[in-house]
Amino acid sequence: MDEIICANTAFRYWRCPPQVRDLYPRLPSPEDGWRALSQSPFVVDVLKTPIITTTVPGGVNYHSGLRTTIHCDDASEVDSTLETAMSFRVTNPLVTLFTMARFVSPTDLVLAMYEFCGWFSVFEPTAAAEAELDKANEAAENATTESLFDLDESQDEPQWKRVYVRINAKEQVNRKGPNGQKKTKEVTRLKGTSLWMRKPLIELHELHEYASKMKRRKWGTKFYNAAQLVTGIAASPLEVAAILLLSLPRSRGGAGFRNVYVNDLTPLTASAQSIAGQKVCYGDIVIVNPTIMKADIVEIQGEVIHGSGAVLDHDAKRMTALQSMGYDVFLVTHDMLNDAEQLDAIVRSLCSRLELRYRCKTKAQKTTEMELRANVLCNWLEIGR
Question: What is the pTM of this model?
Answer without folding.
Answer: 0.86
